[in-house]
Specification:
Structural class: mainly alpha
Oligomer: single chain
Number of helices: 5
Distance between the termini: 39 Å
Order of helices and strands: HHHHH
Length: 185
């Protein structure tokens, strides 16, 4: 049977993984919103241009200038999306959040498994820790901001019903607070 210290280490790793999951989930939603907006513009805008071109005699010079300006804006938005690799970032966020959620579940289940001997526990913990270490190294490429890290901390504290070390509160929801550790996200 594993020691309480090892079980606590396992739960700590589970918290780290669920916090990373929350950060990546939020980031993926933000990227998806951006790319969907650009996609809608890419679909709707040509339809509008087609409709307006059918009624070209009603146009005045200002309308044509507006169409040219909006075309340039859409072109720039597509360039920004491509340049920043939002599609690739979205795919990486989704992949990483799924892996982090799986690691969280594995660490949490391991911490509860009373049937394992100390050696079996240590072996499984070592394997999970190595997988987590590799995933964390991959997640570092996302460069989470301080705000995102506070969001992840709050999410983990909420999921594990634990007190924040700074403010002492147990988060019940994801609403912002004045706490510098778990609140200003």
């Amino acid at each position: 049977m594993p020691t309480q210290t090892k079980i606590d280490d396992c739960l700590y790793e589970a918290k780290q993984c669920i916090g990373a999951y929350a950060i990546l989930e939020k980031r993926a939603k933000r990227i998806k919103t951006r790319t969907k907006a650009i996609l809608v513009l890419n679909i709707v805008y040509p339809a509008i241009i087609f409709f307006l071109s059918q009624n070209i005699e009603r146009f005045q010079n200002e309308n044509v200038n507006g169409i040219i300006a909006s075309s340039i804006v859409i072109f720039l938005l597509n360039g920004i999306s491509f340049g920043f690799g939002w599609d690739r970032q979205y795919q990486e966020c989704i992949e990483s959040k799924v892996i982090n959620l799986g690691l969280h579940d594995d660490f949490k289940n391991l911490s509860k498994d009373q049937s394992l001997t100390t050696n079996e526990f240590n072996n499984q913990y070592g394997i999970l820790k190595e997988r987590s270490k590799n995933r964390t190294a991959g997640d570092r490429s996302f460069h989470p901001s301080n705000k995102e890290e506070r969001y992840g901390v709050r999410y983990a504290l909420m999921k594990f019903s634990e007190n924040c070390q700074a403010c002492g509160a147990v988060p019940k929801d994801m609403k912002k607070t004045d706490c510098l550790v778990c609140g200003k996200h």
